[in-house]
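Pilot study result, target chain (375 residues):
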Amino acid sequence: MLPVSRFSNRWVRWGVVLGFWTWLAFFFATKDYFGRRSMDMEVNWTKALWWKAMEWYGWAVLSLIVFWVCRTFYDPEKKWWRYIGIHVVLGTIISLAHVGICATGAIIEGTLKETGHTWTHLTQIVFFNHFHFDWFVYAAIVSVWHAMDSYRRFRDREVQAIALEARLARSQLQMLKTQLQPHFLFNTLHGISALNHEDPKGANRMLARLSSLLRLTLEQDSAQEVSLEAELEFLGHYLEIEKVRLGDRLTVKMDIAPDTLEASVPNLLLQPIVENAIRHAISPYAAPGHIWITSSREKGVLSLIVRDSGPGLTGQPLRLGVGLTNTQERLRQLYGEKSALDLANSESGGLTVTVSLPFRPKPTASDIAVPHAHR
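Predicted structure:
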């Protein structure tokens, strides 16, 4: 049983088609009526409408056959002359069939009015008055079908191109995200290796934190976007690992606006930014360093700021590492020109990384795997 919407749409389409042929009948009946009146010829509106309704409703039926032939025999990859030959033959047959329909109407009219005209005479008159024009109408119907078919093919190509572009974008996003995970993992394992001889207990704590972090990563592995709250939870596990390695040299302060916690952000957005800050502003120095993380929402834009107490940009050519490069590319893929990742020196010293993206509610449970806390 067809759904109500499809059933209704089908009737609407048939109504439009019937309305088109009815409009043609009234249009040409009106043309003939007023044309004859302007030349002071005998004219009857009922007769004019009878003839034009017979002509155009006849074409309405015959057009179904023409459309079927076009659908059945048209193949752009096959030789065109065969297809044209089919239409030459069919056009002649259809035009003669339409002449037969009109001749039948003329015979009915002649019988009712007792004009005395024979069937042969009426058919001959109809043939000479209609056959050439019928060929023109046949060609027009074929042209309409090809115009509709070309539009359908164009629309299908557009839909396929959009679907392909979406699949490519998803694949590229997944590739960028996949690159981030081993990058982060290798850096962490390197830190554990370096700490293993100096502080075995600290190395064991780092391994435990890494285990929890990897568990979180696996739980939300298929998600391209998570809530800011989930992203901060993941970042908290990462910072615990770094605090084991750096001790009192690392201090992190967060100022997160409560109305931003449910915002949707790219998975693994903050970790590479904070990792970059630790690598360049904290690790190379013996003195304690600070990292500040803030979030705010204004006019539909979510702003995330990571600022460090390091030396900032020193005038050398800026080279983004794997983490920041992938983060920038993922923002572009997900949000286009509505997002931005900017690096600038802070007035109080250090580097400030600002991420701006559209504020959207967090994904639903069907879209993401919601991570659980593993403290």
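One observation from the pilot: The first strand starts at residue 225 and ends at 227. A full batch analysis is planned for the follow-on phase.
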